[in-house]
Amino acid sequence: MAPGFVERRKSSSDNKLIAPDSVPRTILLVEDNRDIREMIATVLQGQGYSVVVATTPEEGVALLRQERYDLVVAHYNLPGMTAPVMLQEAAAAGLLKATPALVVTAHPDPQGVQRIFASGSGPPPKKDRRKAAVVVELALYVNKVWITSARARENLERILDEYARSQVRLKVFDVADDPLAGEADQVVFTPTLVKRSPPPRAWVVGDLSDDNIVKSLLDMSGVQRRA
């Protein structure tokens, strides 16, 4: 996330989000840049998380085959394939049944990782896809007081115009009107786009100016592009 890319409202309860337990949460971090990888791992470990690192998407999938992780944090641009493609491959192999994924374009915020873990919620409920006309379900969280939220909404609508809208269900939530709107999706930043289904669930934080991130999520979810 580039500087100034995301706004976050701090709360006095930020340091009380995770109930203490004897087993540290384990994060799989997939990042090919050594400096960024080491920095992120150090920060997360300082927050009490156990971090396993992978430098390539192939290594990330291999590690997912070996054990279960509480969260996957993957940089969007990885050698040979993007993070959404890697996550789609892992999901198809049944490796992300109860594991949320966070796709980032730069540095994740460890407090944001805490908020994802805080709810203790599992994966989204399964749906009968044979009866469902919707291929992908999206939730966009905005704050009307921030210009980046307005840009995110405009950018998303522009991107979706290239796809079959009948295959997309989009809900927009304004946290300025409802501060608790993001509780279900563990959202602490605005703007944030959440791909709720099909799994794996993924978060994209920022004004969505990078079309490729959103398009990759839609393409890998099976949404058809308009001719």
Rounded mean pLDDT is 78
**Biggest sheet overview:** 8 strands, mixed
Please tally the helical runs, counting DSSP H or I stretches of 4 or more residues: 6
Give, in spatial order, the strands making up the sheet with the most strands. Answer: 3-2-4-7-12-11-8-9
Strand content: 15-25%
- Category from helices, strands and their pairing: alpha/beta
- Separation, N- and C-terminal Cα atoms: 33 Å
| Uncertain residue ranges | 1-21, 121-125, 127-132
Q: Give the helix level as a range of percent.
A: 25-40%
Shape: globular
Radius of gyration: 17 Å
For the secondary structure, the number of strands is 12
SSE sequence, one letter per element: EEHEHEEEHEHEHEEEEH
Can you characterise this structure?
The protein is an alpha/beta fold and 227 residues long. 30% of the residues lie in helices and 22% in strands. It has helices at residues 34-46, 57-66, 83-92, 110-118, 147-160, 211-221, and strands spanning 7-8, 26-30, 50-54, 71-75, 77-78, 81-82, 101-104, 136-142, 168-174, 189-190, 192-197, 202-205. Helix 1 (34-46) links the parallel strand 2 (26-30) and strand 3 (50-54). Helix 2 (57-66) packs parallel to helix 3 (83-92). The protein starts with 6 loop residues before the first strand and ends in a 6-residue tail after the last helix. The model is unreliable at 1-21, 121-125 and 127-132 (pLDDT under 50).
